[in-house]
Specification:
globular; mainly beta; 7-stranded mixed β-sheet
Length: 115
C-alpha cells in the first residue's frame, strides 16, 4: 500500500530554517511528480512546490527564493529545504505524490514560525 511519511517539522524562529522529508513507498516513486502543500488554520490547502520526474520544479510565489524542493530517487524521499522562514509560513505541510490519475497524501507535519 502507498505510504508517505513526513518528518522534520517543528518550531523555529523567524529567519530560521527547517528541512522537511517525505519517505515514500508502495508506488513507482521515480516516475511520480512529488509535491509539498500546506494548510494554515482557517485557510485552504495550497501548493508550495512540486518536482516532476524530469527535474522540473514549480514554486508558489510566496516561497520562491526561500524554499527548495529536491528528491533522492535511490531513497524514495523528497525534501523541502525552507530558509528565511516567516510567521506566515506557519501551517501543516503535506507531502503529495501524483502518478497518472492517482494522487496520494501524507499525514502532514506541523511547521510553526514564531516572530
Amino acid at each position: 500500500q502507498v505510504q508517505l511519511v513526513e518528518s522534520g517539522g517543528g518550531l523555529v524562529q523567524a529567519g530560521g530554517s527547517l528541512r522537511l522529508s517525505c519517505a515514500a513507498s508502495g508506488f513507482t516513486f521515480t516516475f511520480s511528480t512529488m509535491g509539498w502543500y500546506r494548510q494554515a488554520p482557517g485557510k485552504q490547502r495550497e501548493l508550495v512546490a512540486t518536482l516532476n520526474k524530469g527535474g522540473g520544479t514549480n514554486y508558489a510565489d510566496s516561497v520562491k527564493g526561500r524554499f527548495t524542493i529536491s528528491r533522492d530517487n535511490a531513497k524514495n524521499t523528497v525534501y523541502l529545504q525552507m530558509n528565511s522562514l516567516k510567521p506566515e509560513d506557519t501551517a501543516v505541510y503535506y507531502c503529495n505524490a501524483a502518478w497518472y490519475s492517482s494522487s496520494w497524501w501524507g499525514q502532514g507535519t506541523q511547521v510553526t514560525v514564531s516572530s
